Amino acid sequence: MHDAAHPQKTAVIVEDDPDVRHLLAEVLEAAGFSTVSADNGIDGVNAVLTHQPLITTLDVNMPGIDGFEAARRIRAQSDTYIIMLTALDEEADVVLGLTAGADEYLDKPFRPRELRARIEALLRRPRSSVYSPREEPAAQVDADDETWIAHRDLRLDPDSRIALVQEREIELTRTEFDLLNALMQSKRRVRSKVDLTLLLRGEAYVTSSFVSDADKRAVEAHMTNLRRKLGDDPTQPRYIETVRGVGYRLTRDVAA
């Protein structure tokens, strides 16, 4: 994996449509990346493992293996930022893509400026990998340190990016951790899907940014994955509750 202090400006494009592949290369090269392209899932996985790029774009429907399986294989061995590009926009497909390890999910047809904005937002987020098992067990984590924040039996340290449920460490993606951190910092204040989208992009104070329905679905999908990992039932939430038509907030901090 990359040394975070010296990231390589390489991107791998995995896309079977030559026109889309060319457009992706133009956008990424304009952003300062050198690009490597593959037109199928198997070659795409091999390209990522060979070049260990900073950014990888994955089409969902490809010959060989689809983008979901490619993402799973890549994520097991690389901390590259994965952007999934697909014409599928059902929430179940978004959930599947994000569960497979994608960091972003963008509908086709996409606007080059929007893709460029997503890439820039990803690069502002922490580079450390959270997908591989940690070497130390959670029992050795000092959860009494003053940097930790807590809600019921859920604890989180923004500095080390460790989350514990009942003193058991849980593995979260970058995005899941950022969402949980935002909600825990905000406590009972509701965070809307638009607000959370802009926060994930690093644009929390930019009022002119466009947030699409796909962006909101992506937040919903990330939240579904986060709740599953926390063991939180949205119908009887222990940690995170949905404020219908608005967004999300922490439950009341009382004993269950």
How would you characterize this protein structure?
There is one protein chain. Helix content is 37%, strand content 19%. With 256 residues, the chain is of the alpha/beta class. The protein folds into 2 domains: 10-123, Response regulator (Rossmann fold, 3-Layer(aba) Sandwich); 139-250, Orthogonal Bundle (Arc Repressor Mutant, subunit A), CATH 1.10.10. The strands form 3 sheets. Strands 2-1-3-4-5 form a 5-stranded parallel β-sheet, with helices on both faces. The chain has a 4-stranded antiparallel β-sheet with strand order 6-7-8-9, with helices on one face. A 3-stranded antiparallel β-sheet has the order 10-12-11. A hairpin with a 2-residue loop joins strand 8 and strand 9 (168-170). Helix 1 (18-30) packs across helix 5 and helix 7 (193-201) packs across helix 8. It is elongated. The model is unreliable at 1-7 and 128-140 (pLDDT under 50).
Which secondary structure elements does this structure contain, and how are they paired or packed?
Blueprint: E1 10-14, H1 18-30, E2 34-38, H2 41-51, E3 55-59, H3 67-75, E4 81-86, H4 91-99, E5 104-107, H5 112-123, E6 149-151, E7 154-157, E8 162-165, E9 168-170, H6 174-186, E10 191-192, H7 193-201, H8 213-230, E11 240-243, E12 247-250
Parallel strand pairs: 1-2, 1-3, 3-4, 4-5
Antiparallel strand pairs: 6-7, 7-8, 8-9, 10-12, 11-12
Index terms:
256 residues; alpha/beta; Rossmann fold; Arc Repressor Mutant, subunit A; five-stranded parallel β-sheet; four-stranded antiparallel β-sheet; 37% helix; elongated; disordered N terminus
